[in-house]
Design brief:
This protein is of the alpha/beta class. It has a single domain (13-253), classed as 3-Layer(aba) Sandwich (Rossmann fold). It has helices at 22-33, 45-57, 72-85, 118-144, 161-164, 177-196, 225-228, 230-236, and strands at 13-17, 37-42, 61-66, 91-94, 150-154, 203-207, 247-249, 252-253. The chain has an 8-stranded mixed beta sheet with strand order 3-2-1-4-5-6-7-8, with helices on both faces. Helix 3 (72-85) runs parallel beside helix 4 (118-144) and helix 4 (118-144) packs parallel to helix 6.
Length: 256
């Protein structure tokens, strides 16, 4: 990945899943401002195109594709789109995710580990874990075709088993089992894939965006979407000597 002096990355293309709103859209905006062509993956085709049009009206290069990450047909169509039009993928940001155990992370989430339903577990893992894994596997040949690919798995501080086990941590009182477990699994994917790709220019990292005021984060969250996108953007634009196989909030490592 060759950057200009102002941090731009001319000629590079990024796919951001869950890109039609919230953190995903703002991440796309910030990458677009750095010279990327950004492709917004959105479950709703119309909303995805509206979001892309908003970015284009700001002078950015933006496209949209229909993508529910848990949908095999959507994943294949997105692969074919990139193979046909771009022939590579410089950055994949696995941003799409769900929180199904309460209306939002601003609402109380008492520990219901022993009673969480199979349906909630399955839907959460399909979107937060299996979808990103299968999409990444499918897109990896195109990422290898880029000069120096970057894969960013948007995780959560709730993924940290260390913090969930520490009674003094801010995470300890909150136990959204399905969500937390799915993000812990996503972190495991980060570590394993980074190891497999350690001899290549590709870097794979997990990002905690912070507690962000979005539909998922709720209105009590501390950060806005601009702040919430910083970690993903940072990891998407790492220099050649940047880290891989890590778990970060901004530039700070988090405990697994």
């Amino acid at each position: 990945m060759i950057m200009t002096k102002d941090g731009g990355v001319p000629g590079s293309v990024a796919l951001i899943t869950g890109g039609s709103r919230g953190i995903g859209l703002e991440t796309a905006r910030q990458l677009g401002q750095r010279g990327f062509t950004v492709v917004l993956g959105a479950r709703n085709k119309e909303k995805g195109e509206q979001a892309a049009q908003t970015l284009r009206s700001e002078g950015l290069k933006a496209e949209s594709v229909q993508l529910g990450v848990e949908d095999a047909d959507d994943r294949r169509a997105v692969h074919d789109y990139f193979a046909r039009l771009h022939r590579k993928l410089d950055v994949l940001i696995n941003n799409a995710g769900v929180w199904l155990e309460s209306p939002s992370a601003s609402d109380a989430t008492p520990n219901r580990t022993s009673t969480v339903s199979w349906k909630v577990l399955q839907q959460t893992f399909d979107i937060n874990f299996f979808g990103p894994v299968l999409l990444t596997q499918l897109m990896l040949p195109l990422i290898r075709a880029a000069p120096a690919g970057r894969i960013v798995n948007v995780s959560s501080i709730h993924a940290s088993l260390t913090l969930h086990s520490d009674p003094t941590s801010v995470v300890y009182p909150h136990k959204p089992f399905a969500y937390a477990a799915s993000k812990s699994a996503l972190n495991a994917f980060t570590v394993q894939l980074a190891h497999e790709l350690r001899e290549t220019p590709i870097k794979v990292n997990s990002a905690h965006p912070g507690w962000v005021r979005t539909q998922m984060g709720g209105q009590s969250a501390l950060l806005d979407t601009v702040q919430g996108s910083w970690t993903s953007v940072h990891l998407a634009t790492l220099p050649p000597d940047g880290p891989t196989g890590g778990y970060f909030f901004l530039e700070e490592s988090l405990p697994w």
